[in-house]
């Protein structure tokens, strides 16, 4: 705990009290003289809740206009029913309601503004006036759009002939009603029930009178309300809302209302991250006549912090793994108080709650007895004893005995006082009557927290000694990063990066030592300088370097913490469940894949709607379709050659071909650049290739394939640019592409951050790939097989696409092989970069646009691409699934 800065309001009040003690009564002087140290507060804050309401309002406006545009019959019937029902209202009542509402709709906002100005809350009034002005501008723009450019159905839904002039139309949006709604929303009248009730009654009377007299339509009223509401929240988010956080002086006054006599209040330091920023601001308060207090203040700004992160977690994780992202201050106060009382009743050491109170309409405070102590993560390594670990588990056991879930057992939520007693804090996010899954998540979180501080062995041993082996074993399915707190996940990622860096450093050091040893041997060699070493010597040196690197990798390899914890638990309970529980409702990759696939499907559908497939299929050249099928089948043999060319060990060719066929199934459920690499690496490991060498072989194949891909793209691009010119001068497009690549290279090499990033990645890649390439270079036939397989693989795909084009094209619509190759290579590159499985959507769109760009008619390009993707992506899925299952049963995958 550490005081931070003095709030200017508190400093001013203190100086005022010291300068005029004779003119103020004793109680007021005493209040002003109290010290209250806290950092400066921003004058305005941008609330995520305002942004969410703005987005909801915009969406509601779009839906309303869509209904008005496409449901013309429904809107007309609704207007007729309303006019028929309101036509029976007494004329005198309508006139009185209209007159009263017209007067009151102006008087009520003015009266509220006067009341706020008297209470010195002019900032809110200014925000309201700004929102009203903007709403009036939006209404004018909307009226102009409806009159000049809107579809006829929308104009009919929002307007009708004016009762005073049948040749004129009523206003689509009420020019005075929308600004009033924007004003009342921006000034926060909704948080004052009496003013809110009065104004809504006035607005409803005004809308009713105008609807009955025929000066508006139901859709016009709804549109007016939505515009005012949306503009108000857009204004509040843009300019920020006045900061209503209670100051130190407000906190002191609130403590006095519940019977305490504070002397000083010091703000505790805390990191307000997206995860724990909503836990409230904490103060250390000293009293005149008693022990100090720990006070937590929660306001609307704390409630808003981390809002979007919690919304994302609620969308992607199952309900039992998350907590509510929307919670009122009253609910937060009641939940924290309930958890505090329940934890103490369960026998756990938790801060004792002694008072609660509201600090105005926008904040609450919770008063605890002062606990003191240090957080568990701040203790030195020698202070974390086995007894301390067991005491921590005893507190969790007390909570779990009453089915209370803490939900955040991180290192900063556990305090240790001077006597060594463990105190559990931050109970605000917990749950009573928790499910078994939540209790297991608590165990998984705490064993990970203690493992980070004391090691996996001690953490598991202490948990087993208190909870028993069965309870600890049952938590293994929850031992996954997604079930842990955000701070714990960040720590695990940092440790993983450090572990990977140590492995890379070990490999580089081993490689350098091997080179140094060869240099020393060369200097001591008595052979003539010009005499070259024989092949046996070169092979022996390469094997020695490879062996040194393998040993360095094995020595540097470390297991991550979660794996260590699992191994420790399995030593005690070998039959414990290890399959991770499914906590994610939807994965981010799945969501991105769905969006990208929807975009690609929309693009293809727009292209296909203008094509008549009946005559096209009837006139298709089935001989070229058969040729396309043959080229697609040959691509799997070429892919097997491209892989085996970089594997010096002996691996069966036909089984490798089967693995490539299985890859056609894998790339449907994973991005193309990820699924194929993982499957080939796993396949080589199962064929007896060591894990490090398998990764290096696949990496060498991918690296060499990337180089071949770029060279072929540039070569065919050059040929495409010279096809229509008498000389061999490249086209301007090729020159522009080369210049763009050169500029990118210069930018990367000139910016230190980018240069360091690229160099680090390249070093880590070459650390494992280069020694593997040395092994391949010792066998020229292997290198020829690999290079030939890559070229043959590209040729198969290019010929398959060319055959698909010829199947639907006529004599004059065929393209040159160079043009087809350029289109395929560009589409394949984009498909590898796209996050969708198999590049779905991205490849189809790129190939179609590319073929049209090089001169192929749209009526031929679209079906040709569909046939090509059908043969290379969709039809091989069933054989791929069968091959995948067959290889899995035989232990080859």
Automatic annotation (TrEMBL):
It is a multi-pass membrane protein. The keyword Metal-binding does not apply. It comes from the Bacteria. InterPro entries: Kinase-like_dom_sf, L-PG_synthase/AglD. Coiled coil: none annotated. The chain crosses the membrane at residues 54-72, 92-114, 197-215, 221-239, 591-610, 622-647, 692-714, 734-754, 783-808, 814-831, 838-856, 862-884. It is found in: Cell membrane. Keywords: Cell membrane, Membrane, Transmembrane, Transmembrane helix. Residues 517-537 have a biased composition (Basic and acidic residues). One of its GO terms (cellular component) is plasma membrane. The keyword Transmembrane applies. Residues 1-32, 516-537 are annotated as: Disordered. This is Lysylphosphatidylglycerol synthase domain-containing protein. It comes from Streptomyces pseudovenezuelae.
């Amino acid at each position: 705990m550490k005081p931070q800065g003095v709030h200017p309001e508190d400093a001013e009040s203190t100086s005022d009290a010291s300068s005029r003690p004779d003119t103020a009564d004793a109680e007021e002087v005493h209040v002003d003289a109290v010290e209250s140290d806290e950092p400066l507060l921003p004058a305005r804050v941008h609330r995520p809740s305002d942004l969410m309401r703005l987005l909801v309002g915009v969406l509601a406006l779009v839906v309303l206009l869509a209904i008005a545009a496409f449901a013309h019959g429904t809107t007309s019937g609704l207007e007729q029913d309303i006019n028929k029902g309101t036509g029976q209202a007494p004329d005198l009542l309508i006139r009185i309601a209209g007159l009263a509402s017209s007067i009151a709709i102006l008087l009520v906002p003015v009266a509220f503004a006067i009341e706020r100005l008297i209470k010195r809350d002019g900032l809110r009034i200014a925000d309201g006036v700004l929102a009203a002005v903007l709403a009036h501008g939006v209404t004018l723009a909307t009226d102009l759009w409806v009159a000049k450019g809107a579809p006829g159905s929308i104009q009919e839904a929002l307007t009708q002939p004016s009762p005073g002039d049948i040749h004129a139309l009523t206003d689509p949006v009420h020019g005075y009603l929308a600004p009033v709604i924007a004003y009342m929303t921006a000034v926060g009248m909704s948080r004052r029930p009496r003013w809110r009730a009065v104004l809504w009654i006035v607005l409803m009377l005004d809308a009713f009178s105008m609807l009955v007299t025929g000066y508006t339509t139901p859709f016009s009223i709804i549109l007016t309300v939505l515009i005012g509401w949306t503009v108000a929240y857009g204004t509040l988010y843009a300019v920020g809302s006045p900061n209503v956080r209670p100051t130190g002086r407000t906190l002191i006054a609130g403590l006095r209302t519940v019977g305490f006599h504070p002397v000083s209040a010091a703000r505790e330091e805390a990191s307000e991250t997206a995860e724990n920023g909503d836990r409230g601001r904490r103060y250390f308060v000293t009293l005149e006549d008693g022990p100090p207090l720990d006070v937590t203040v929660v306001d609307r700004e704390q409630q808003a912090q981390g809002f979007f992160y919690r919304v994302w977690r609620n969308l992607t994780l199952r309900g039992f793994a998350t907590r509510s992202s929307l919670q009122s201050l009253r609910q937060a106060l009641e939940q924290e108080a309930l958890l505090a009382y329940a934890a103490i009743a369960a026998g756990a050491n938790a801060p004792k709650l002694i008072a609660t109170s509201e600090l105005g309409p926008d904040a609450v405070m919770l008063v605890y007895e002062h606990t003191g102590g240090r957080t568990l993560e701040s203790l030195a390594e020698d202070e974390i004893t086995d007894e301390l670990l067991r005491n921590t588990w005893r507190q969790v056991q007390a909570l779990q005995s009453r089915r209370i879930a803490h939900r955040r057992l991180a290192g900063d939520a556990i305090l240790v006082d001077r006597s060594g007693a463990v105190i559990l804090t931050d109970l605000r996010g917990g749950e009573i009557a928790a499910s078994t899954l939540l209790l297991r998540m608590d165990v998984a979180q705490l064993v990970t927290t203690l493992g980070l501080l004391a090691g996996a062995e001690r953490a598991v041993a202490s948990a087993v000694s208190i909870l028993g082996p069965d309870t600890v074993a049952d938590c293994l399915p929850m031992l996954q990063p997604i079930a842990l707190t955000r701070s714990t996940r960040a720590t695990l990622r940092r440790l993983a990066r450090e572990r990977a860096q140590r492995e890379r450093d070990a490999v580089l050091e081993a490689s350098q030592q091997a080179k140094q040893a060869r240099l020393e041997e060369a200097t001591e060699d008595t052979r003539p300088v010009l005499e070259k070493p024989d092949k046996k010597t070169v092979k022996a040196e390469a094997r020695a370097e490879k062996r040194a690197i393998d040993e360095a990798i094995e020595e540097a390899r470390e297991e991550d913490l979660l794996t260590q914890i699992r191994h420790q638990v399995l030593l005690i309970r070998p039959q414990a469940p290890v399959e991770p529980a499914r906590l994610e409702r939807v994965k981010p990759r799945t969501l991105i894949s769905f969006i990208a696939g929807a975009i690609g499907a929309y693009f293809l559908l727009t292209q296909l709607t203008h094509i008549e497939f009946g005559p096209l299929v009837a006139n298709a050249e089935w001989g070229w379709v058969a040729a396309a099928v043959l080229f697609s089948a040959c691509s799997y043999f070429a892919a097997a050659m491209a892989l085996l060319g970089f594997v010096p060990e002996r691996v069966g060719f036909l089984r490798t071909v089967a693995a490539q066929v299985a890859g056609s199934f894998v790339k449907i459920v994973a991005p193309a650049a990820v699924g194929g690499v993982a499957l080939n690496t796993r396949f080589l490991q199962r064929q007896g290739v060591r894990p490090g060498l398998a990764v290096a072989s696949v990496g060498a194949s991918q690296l060499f394939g990337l180089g071949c891909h770029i060279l072929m793209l540039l070569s065919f691009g050059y040929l495409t640019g010279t096809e229509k010119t008498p000389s061999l001068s490249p086209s301007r497009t090729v020159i522009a592409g080369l210049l763009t690549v050169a500029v990118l290279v210069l930018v990367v090499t000139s910016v230190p951050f980018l240069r360091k990033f690229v160099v680090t990645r390249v070093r880590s890649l070459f650390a494992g790939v280069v020694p593997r390439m040395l092994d391949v270079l010792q066998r020229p036939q292997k290198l020829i097989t690999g290079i030939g397989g890559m070229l043959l693989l590209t040729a198969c795909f290019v010929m398959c696409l060319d055959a698909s084009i010829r199947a639907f094209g006529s004599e004059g619509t065929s393209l040159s092989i160079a043009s087809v190759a350029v289109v395929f290579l560009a589409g394949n590159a984009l498909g590898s970069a796209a996050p969708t499985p198999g590049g779905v959507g991205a490849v189809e769109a790129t190939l179609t646009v590319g073929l049209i760009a090089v001169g192929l008619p749209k009526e031929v390009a679209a079906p040709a691409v569909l046939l090509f993707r059908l043969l290379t992506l969709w039809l091989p899925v069933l054989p791929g699934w069968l091959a995948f299952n067959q290889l899995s049963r035989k232990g080859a995958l």
